[in-house]
Design a protein that fits this description.
Radius of gyration of chain A: 13 Å
Oligomer: heterodimer
Largest sheet of chain B: 7 strands, mixed
Number of strands of chain B: 11
Shape of chain A: globular
Order of helices and strands of chain B: EEEEEEEEEEE
Radius of gyration of chain B: 13 Å
Number of helices of chain A: 0
Number of strands of chain A: 11
Structural class of chain B: mainly beta
Largest interface: A-B, 26 and 26 residues
Strand content of chain B: over 45%
Order of helices and strands of chain A: EEEEEEEEEEE
Structural class of chain A: mainly beta
Distance between the termini of chain A: 38 Å
Largest sheet of chain A: 6 strands, mixed
């Protein structure tokens, strides 16, 4: 049973436009959410995170939105650049000593 | 040094071989993790070490044997693997187990092929 779901395996966007990657979760104990970016032949790298006490966190071109009632979060990338083309993983943590639970990932392709 | 270094990057081994994967970090992190990732799947947690002690073993078969010789090193000893164990093995570290504010720092992984 997947507790973190990324239902879109892939997304194609033109350079300069907005990319929106979505993530849903089922475990109401999750209180911390993270996005990772992964290039081929590299490990995932941390991108941005959000605590459950917030509904938005922004870092440069990247903004994460959290809707706790819907158990949904999204990552917005504006403007999208070709270098953003990668697999994006959503991850969640239930606090305490818990570890991260990952979604399956969404492959983003930004074309020039 | 803000990296997690994994060696080797690629490994091909037979089902009767014994090999080891190595992971090293010098960030002073006290929690280290082994993940397994197959194509089009999320990383799956295998083991967690916290302060050099095994904290979590996610019911991993005994043909995978982790070892944490010191706070900077994490090994994964492999013996009698099956072809279905072929995957990308990722090592990660964090300041402490559950201290997820800045996420984990991942290595580049070892691509393992069992023949």
């Amino acid at each position: 049973d997947q507790q973190v779901k990324q239902n879109s395996p892939s997304l194609s966007v033109q350079e300069g436009r907005i990319s929106i990657l979505n993530c849903d979760y089922t475990n109401s104990m999750f209180d911390y959410f993270l996005w990772y970016k992964k290039y081929p032949a590299e490990g995932p790298t941390f991108l941005i995170s959000i605590s459950s006490i917030k509904d938005k966190n922004e870092d440069g071109r990247f903004t994460v939105f959290l809707n706790k009632s819907a158990k949904h979060l999204s990552l917005h990338i504006v403007p999208s650049q070709p270098g953003d083309s990668a697999v994006y993983f959503c991850a969640a943590s239930a606090g305490g000593y818990s570890t991260l639970t990952f979604g399956k990932g969404t492959m983003l392709l930004v074309s020039p | 040094d803000t990296e997690v270094t994994q060696t080797p990057k690629h490994l091909v081994m037979g089902m009767t071989n014994k090999k080891s994967l190595k992971c090293e970090q010098h960030m002073g992190h006290r929690a280290m993790y082994w993940y397994k990732q197959k194509a089009k799947k999320p990383p799956e947690l295998m083991f967690v070490y916290s302060y050099e002690k095994l904290s979590i073993n996610e019911s991993v078969p005994s043909r995978f044997s982790p070892e944490c010789p010191n706070s900077s090193l994490l090994n994964l000893h492999l013996h009698a693997l099956q072809p279905e164990d072929s995957a990308l093995y990722l090592c990660a570290s964090s300041p402490g187990q559950g201290q997820n504010f800045y996420g984990y720092t991942f290595g580049s992984g070892t691509r393992l092929t069992v023949v």
